[in-house]
Amino acid sequence: MNLDSTFLSVNISVSPFSTVDRKKRPRNDRRIQECAMSIQRTFQEAIMGHLHSRTEIVISLHVLAQDGGFFAACINATSLALIDAGVPMYDYVSACSTALYDSISPLLDPNNAEESDLPFLTVATIGKTEKVSMLLLESKVPLDRLESLIAVTISGCHSLRDQMDRQVRKHGHLRITKRSE
Amino acid sequence: MPKRKDISLNERQFILSLLKDSQRLDGRAIDQFRKVDLKFGDSLGHAEVQLGKTRLVVRVSAEVSKPYEDRPYEGTFIITTDVSSMASPLFENNRSSDDEMLMTRLIEKAIRRSNALDLESLCIVAGKSCWMIRADVHYLSYDGGLVDASCIGVIAALMHFRRPDTSIDGDQTIIHSVEERVPVPLSILHVPICVTFSFFKVDEVPSSTENPVAAIPGSGQSANGVPTADDSAILVIDATAQEEALRHSELTITINKNRDICQIAKPGGYSVEALTILECANKAYKIATNITDLIYRRLKEDESKRNAGNLVPLTAENER
Amino acid sequence: MPVIAISRPETVYGGVSGGNRKLKRANGGDEEDVDGVDELEYEDADSGSDAEMRDLDDDDGDANDNDKRSGFGSSTKGSSLVTPGELITEDTMWMRGHGTFSQDEKTFSSVAGTITRVNKLLSVTPLRGRYQPVIGDHVIGRITEVGNKRWKVDIGGNQDAALLLGSVNLPGGVLRRKSESDELQMRQFLKEGDLLNAEVQALFSDGGASLHTRSLRYGKLRNGMLVQVPSSLIIRLRTQLYRLPGGVDMILGINGYIWLSKSSKVAADVSITRLEETSGLEIYSDTNEEINTSTRENIARYANCIRALAFKEVGVNETRLIAAYEASLAYASAGDLIEDEVKAILAAEALAADRSDE
Questions:
Q1: What domains, with CATH codes, occur in chain C?
Q2: B101–A135 C-beta distance less than 8 A
Q3: What does each C-alpha distance from B100 to B269, B287, C113 come to in angstroms?
Q4: Which ipTM score applies to this complex?
Q5: Is pTM beyond 0.90 here?
Q6: Which residues 49-108 of A have a C-beta within 8 angstroms of C?
Q7: Which of A161, B14, C34, C227 could crosslink A94 through cysteines, CB 3.0-4.6 Å?
């Protein structure tokens, strides 16, 4: 463990009723564990950990309903929660997924039905850059479609970053007006 | 990918500054894959891979079992990875660290999820019996690139393996012994190859010529807040154990000869330009073609050795 | 070329045209990078929905965004909102304080909050977050651990604060020397779970705080109850001690912990000279005094009023709390105040008190 930096620990719990077919998920689902680890490593780079040395930040994610974009939603939620908690970060971390329809067309933010039939990839970027912090692709995609897929996903991430920023501002303004002087 | 190996500051600085000058401790170019040494054992489905100092053995076995209830027409396929302290004292026995979990997931996604093995061909009687194929990976020595090496090992062992032939007589399933009928090879749909790329932050790497103190942290950082070095992240292919311990992020691409990407995983860490990832994918494709050819070559050599006494090569393969 | 449009209830982004998007390497290093991203060849098919999203935005969002960026240096207005990754200024004259970071000589925000400027020091105060101790803060805390010559106190910060045995008043007056037997019977003065009010005496380099209770104002708390609100709802004032109508005393801890208790007979500000006579053993007493029913009801009423303000994220101060309390008298029992609608009404009354003040 690095003593000069904040230690992030991520717990994800998926409720059994989050999918259409209710089923009990094993606690140590590899996919969920992998997701938690990726979130931890993504945010370890995004937060200014050196400011809170010898500290642990525990991120608990509870998934209530799943309709595609599981991983991306987890990352975006974490991003907003960290901002609300006042943890210093370099920028928003925004994530988004894109499916590939008919081996040709990128399909932004697929839902559950689309995800189950199409290959899709999830990308997380820090701020409005072209830099990929996290990338996950679990099904077959032709090499030549990769570029357009990543490009669409990144633009989706940027759009989400703006949307999140707008919400943070909205709430921020609300809070400022109600503050005691 | 073991838990962090502690590397002395001198060693660290030496390796990093070498990398900055595109040099590596073992004399390779930074985008050079280590030489893959692939050997097959006496029994079918036994493959030994040596990648630099990384060594592993894969054993494939088959037994008849019941298919999963939700997939009656498919056989089952399990990959087990046994990372023990035999490979390196960094690994603990019977306890898988996060990194080992990621590694197992990666191998699983690369081979099992990408449908490299045709599971439907393993069905004997729908819903009743099917073949269960096991691939057991044993690591003998560790020097980085476990995922890449295991992927080569597993797929080569699967291609080398022959399962006993079966036939159905009424409601009886007959499994023919090796003496009775020539065993059949597994139906491999494609050959996925994993290539792992490691990235190093440039601004943390002191140049070998400069005084390390003079290297200003913050230079080479990008505009919008994120401290990333644009085009300057050092990309290293097939890192050794030391490099793996020092890298700032990794990217594993699984690709086959048909230009299909089976899987990409970059689990967080230091950010990398999207275009770099595309470059990586293209590099991975070239490496994958070479390795695939190597596997086919080795398989052929092995076969000709086995058939040395026969005038007509024995085969159970149908000409399709 | 097929165009697929997805519109999902949670997130609204519209059609994305297929296939031909290309990534372009942002020309690295120079200051055009921020805009370089926008210049990428995303021939946005979703520009329509982009505009749509902008409509959802309330006017103060993006609007002041622009004039802040351009005219920051000359602006004198106090509270402008920034979010993580936002460029605050390109001017190099500012010193960077908390909540900021720099890149290529430019200053960016690292938290969502308001810009504060003290002389040349530029910092961003987060809107929410854990309490960050500042020397001199009057805080309320709870003992979590009794350690070697010190107590650990939860003050709602990133880490527990330390209260050294040497920084408390022990029975017998200020001049009393701490002996070894005191070290052994620390638990008799303060034990795990005890509440106390204290002042932040010093800060450690890692952000931890050291407390002291060497004044009669500070010390162990009894005869009341604790209410916890986010520390961002409380601002630093000259005094944090209030005597509220209805025979209730309030200590407004800067860390968001609020202590409501029965009014004490002794005036809150005892002069330092009387310290010695009054610090008997009873300052570490654990037993509550007799509290009559109406005082109990009042304490509960104040507690619920504070919760109502916190519920609506209204900052807590004396005027607002008294206004909310008076409004709450319309309800017969303090228990009636826990309904969400009632909370909203009380919070609105409290805010109205500000306006009538001005």
A1: 3-56 (no CATH), 60-126 (2.40.50.100)
A2: no
A3: 17, 24, 40
A4: 0.90
A5: no
A6: 51-55, 83-92, 101-102, 104-108
A7: A161
